[in-house]
Specification:
The protein is α+β, with helices and mostly antiparallel strands. It has 20 helices and 19 strands. Strands 12, 13, 14, 15, 16, 17, 18 and 19 form an eight-stranded mixed sheet that branches.
Length: 619
């Protein structure tokens, strides 16, 4: 079960995207954060005035997850991709691709240009981005054009060279003038290559030159020029902050990274579709203690892609795998076209793999802590109980409870916990057959006798179900209930320890009755908390069964009074409708759709129930 308080403590103080899930595990909100720890925690504080929409969203959160990124810009782009993928109902401002600017260098032209674009086309141009600030992009393009003397016109060169007069930029010495025909392709390409190197991150000399100019302007008291150069430096640096969440081509790829623990491993997958990261998933690999990373990755690749319906064109791995060519051939055969397996060691792809690996490490660390806490409240709690009672090892616990109202509809419940966890498939309900009136001891005796007689019979036949006996019986009560259970077990020749779960005057668990005395127990211990959970679960299961029988009994008693409704029609109505209020709210036409109910009887049923307001509450 997702523990919000515990998960909030594990949030990293890193940029990233958080994903809120609703009760049906659907994505209801996606957001970005500069600091995940602070941002996500803020949703769960009692803040006045943040708006009804946010309060409503928070009330519907069943769990959250997050993806860490290296920069806030990457979080911004990933947020956009995930919003478009999931369309969460609380994300009202959905962004489109045109929100983000790119820098495009038309290297497919003889005399390339640097352009500001918002939509990408499939051509041979070099593309950089997306970026968060259009102002920074425009300033950077202007700077590069001035530094390297690149053209900004759309003239078709070299065909039109020398046929028109050069523009003002040429005369202002801001363009080398390829339109004049005096600049060769080779010379111009060197300028373009320098601009591409700048956009690729090799920008130290340019930044250094701008800083010198800024300092010189400041010394001359030309503060406006110094401020302009300062802002230009800031814009250039923001442009050179490369992000990895959206690529520059439209390929589909899976990015797979591995993180190791002491005895298990986590494999993290980033799903890149049409060049955009749209989601991720993680998987646990066990029995990896004596296995190296390559073998773990090899085992995962074979198992995962044997079952997944979609295989991308490219698979990026954090470690090499044996028989990589054979795996490529197998995957290519499944896909119907060539599939490539890569292990990048530098560049943006390697950085994307490192980001996936960091997320895998976070999952491993977070879940290791969750597993430790879960073991403490389950297996560790059972161990505390066994030590307290001086028993060897406890694996299976069974608890029983009785429910009735003044002896009406006596029922019993049996709940099962194995290693501190409820095993609901082994829960059982009992309708008391031999006891009339409010006699909990007699009811409990019948329930226990039926449970263990049935179990003994199954041991001789099928060997399943009731044939599995508990290591300890936990009775809802003290001396009286324990004595009843001990007597039943003795009559049947069974040797099973019995303890009582004692409650105080406020019906809260107080302690354990064991060997004819109440044993004190630390109320803050995990063992005590487990006993409380067992007792509450047995009580809840019994009450729910009793409530359902009361509802059916009420429906049955009312329907029997309606003219034209006999046993067959009553059963048909009870099969179709879950409660009396549901029948009451149905139209005569709807009731007539019930098998065996003619229109005249349906009208009679509707008229009768709507004249009986005391039965309108339902189950």
């Amino acid at each position: 079960m997702f523990n919000t308080e515990e998960e909030l403590k594990k949030l990293p103080k890193s940029p990233g995207v958080y994903i809120m899930h609703g009760e049906k595990d659907e994505v209801i909100y996606v957001g970005k954060a500069k600091n995940l720890h602070n941002r996500v925690r803020s949703y769960f504080r009692k803040i006045v005035g943040r708006g009804p929409a946010i309060d409503r969203m928070v009330s519907q959160i069943s769990r959250f997850e997050y993806i860490v990124t290296d920069t806030e810009l990457e979080a911004l782009v990933l947020e956009n991709n995930l919003i478009k993928e999931y369309e969460p109902k609380y994300n009202t401002m959905l962004r489109d691709d045109k929100t983000y600017p790119y820098i495009k260098v038309t290297v497919n032209e003889d005399f390339p240009r640097i352009l500001f674009v918002r939509r990408l086309k499939k051509d041979r141009s070099r593309v950089f981005g997306p970026y968060s600030s259009s102002y920074a992009v425009r300033d950077t393009i202007e700077l590069l054009n001035k530094i390297y003397g690149l053209r900004t016109c759309s003239m078709k060169l070299p065909e039109a060279a020398g046929k028109t007069r050069p523009c003002l930029n040429y005369h202002m010495k801001q363009c080398c003038g390829p339109c004049t025909g005096q600049v060769s392709k080779e010379e111009y390409r060197k300028r373009v290559d320098s601009a591409l190197a700048f956009l690729d991150g090799r920008y130290e000399s340019v930044i250094s030159d701008l800083e010198e100019r800024m300092n010189a302007a400041s010394e001359k008291l030309e503060f406006e020029e110094a401020a302009r150069l300062r802002d230009l430096i800031s814009n250039v640096k923001s442009i050179l902050q490369r992000q990895k969440i959206t690529g520059y081509n439209e390929e589909d790829r899976d990015v797979i990274a591995l993180a190791r623990g002491d005895s298990d491993a986590v494999v993290q997958i980033f799903f890149i579709r049409s060049g955009k990261m749209i989601g991720r998933d993680h998987f646990y690999m066990t029995h990896v203690t004596d296995t190296d990373d390559d073998e773990v990755m090899y085992g995962f690749i074979r198992q995962y892609y044997a079952g997944t319906p979609y295989i991308p064109q490219e698979i990026m791995l954090s470690s090499r795998v044996p028989d990589a060519e054979l795996i490529e051939e197998w995957l290519s055969g499944r896909k119907g076209r060539r599939v490539h397996i890569l292990v990048p060691e530098r560049g943006s792809k390697e950085k994307l793999l490192e980001l996936a690996k960091e997320n895998a490490r976070l999952v491993l660390t977070k879940d290791s802590e969750r597993i430790r806490l879960e073991n403490a409240r389950t297996v560790g709690a059972v161990r505390q109980i066994s030590d307290l009672l001086g028993l060897p090892q406890i694996h299976r616990m069974e608890a029983f409870d009785i429910s009735n109202i003044s002896g009406f509809l006596n029922v019993g419940s049996m709940v099962v916990f194995e290693d501190g966890r409820p095993k609901k498939s082994d829960y059982r309900k009992f309708r008391i057959k031999t006891v009339a009136g409010p006699d909990d001891y007699a009811c409990m005796k019948e329930v226990l006798t039926r449970r263990f007689e049935h179990g003994l019979a199954e041991k001789e036949t099928s060997g399943s179900g009731f044939s599995v006996f508990p290591d300890i019986l936990l009775m809802d009560g003290g001396r009286g209930q324990v004595n009843i259970a001990t007597g039943v077990l003795k009559e049947l020749g069974l040797d099973i320890p019995v303890a009582g779960m004692v409650k105080d005057d406020f019906h809260r668990t107080r302690g354990i009755y064991w060997n004819n005395e109440e044993i004190p127990i630390d109320t803050h211990s995990e063992g005590f908390k487990l006993i409380t959970r067992v007792q509450d679960e047995a009580h809840r299961f019994a009450i729910e069964y009793h409530r359902s029988l009361r509802s059916k009994n009420q429906v049955q008693s009312v329907l029997d009074q309606i003219p034209g409704v006999g046993e067959a029609r009553r059963k048909a109505l009870m099969r179709r409708y879950s409660s009396l209020s549901e029948i009451k709210e149905a139209s005569a036409e709807d009731i007539a759709k019930t098998p065996g109910i003619p229109a005249s009887v349906a009208e009679e049923i509707r008229n009768y129930l709507n004249g009986k307001d005391q039965f309108s509450s339902g189950s």
